[in-house]
Amino acid sequence: MHKIYSRRSFVKSGAQIIAGAYLGSVLPLDLLAEKKRKINPSDQFRVAAIGINGMGWADLQSMLKHPNVQVVALCDVDENVLNRRKSELQKAHLAADTYVDYERVLDRKDIDAVIIGTPDHWHCKIMVDACSAGKHVYCEKPIGRTIAECRVMVAAQQRYGQVVQVGQWQRSMQHFQDAVNYVQSGKLGKIRLVKAWNYGGSPVPVQPDAATPAGVHYEKWLGPAPERPFNPNRFHYNFRWFYDYAGGLMTDWGVHLIDYALLAMQAAYPKRITAMGGKYGFPHDAEEWPDTLTAVFDFDDFAVQWEHARGLGLGPFERSHGIAYIGENGTLVLDRGGWEVIPEKANNQYKTEPVDRQKAVDNGLDKHTYNFVEAAMAHRPDWAHAPVTAGTQVAEICHMGNIAWLCGEVLHWDRQSGQFQEQQANAWITPTYHHGIAFPQV
């Protein structure tokens, strides 16, 4: 459905935010509902959310703050979640149809866009189907569970022309852009190393397999993933720690932070990748991916280093997460709370001026979802702050880090062929789909 909104309604909605009327960040859903009852039907931007237990629900709540957005459908394979979210909307005087099968959502001609908040292993299939059905897509990160999935998702957006925004919402935060501008100003001098890290998280205690809970359509949850008994550890939030569904902390947070390493350094793809680590902190918990990992990505004249040590809390510079651009004149340290510059010294003189902490001033998620709606209403994929190409680049690089750890050797990436020189590593590029679901073709 390619609905282009009137210039009058589009400019008016954009002006409301500029004028400070974007009060959705503080308005409860019931007041938002009262405002939305006054929207001209021709100006409504109708949204469905697929996968609404975690970030999919947060994305929807944020998107509803846009003056034109109406929620018309909710979809989840856990009817317990589905009914709870429907009830929450009803308490706010908002109504939406509910579905277990996402295909039925995509069949509706009155839906302009979908939010994909499912576990990672479902992102690719649903996104490709949504684009082919004429829907704009806001897809949670990481964009794809494997390198091949990322590529087919780019192909789908390019073929069908829909607006696709990846949920890397730091791309909509002003202080992140200010930090990038400072890095690119040259004041730090030559940057030879960029570090990114996350030290958060907690162990996942082992639990036995169990009966599938009532209301859960487990086969639909598994989808393209291999068959296995239901286990509460692998369901809902904790899916991200298991090979079949996600890439652990490397892809869960790496796509947020390494993204800004690449953006500031104007980098493409590394030529060499190495990684080491293991289950050093919680050797007996249920997580399959390493709880401790260091991955190094060698670019032409600098390196990016990712590290995580789940459960420690504080990492470098006493921050649980962050990015450090280490230059010859000083280091810029950036996280979601702000940024600062720590200068180097030579002959007891600062090599660059220190910069006190510049605090975050905006709500990244709200700005990110708003940007998506504005781009989709105007049918302008180029307006997206985190387009599918950007989401794919950083997701592929994070997958390279995981693959280097799985293979246990230094890997060499061939930028021309889009493959590793090491054949055992190439086996991890394309997934095998299960349960009669074919790998998407575009």
Automatic annotation (TrEMBL):
Domain Gfo/Idh/MocA-like oxidoreductase N-terminal: start-end pairs: 45-167
- Which InterPro entries does its entry note? Gfo/Idh/MocA-like_OxRdtase_N, Gfo/Idh/MocA_oxidrdct_glycsds, Gfo/Idh/MocA_OxRdtase_bact_C, NAD(P)-bd_dom_sf, TAT_signal
Q: Molecular function (GO) terms listed?
A: nucleotide binding
Q: Which Gene3D superfamilies match?
A: Dihydrodipicolinate Reductase, domain 2 (3.30.360.10), NAD(P)-binding Rossmann-like Domain (3.40.50.720)
- The membrane-spanning stretches of this chain are none
Q: Where are the coiled-coil regions?
A: none
Q: Where is the Gfo/Idh/MocA-like oxidoreductase bacterial type C-terminal domain?
A: 210-260
Q: Which PANTHER family match?
A: BCDNA.GH03377 (PTHR43818), OXIDOREDUCTASE FAMILY PROTEIN (PTHR43818:SF5)
For this entry, the protein name equals Predicted dehydrogenase
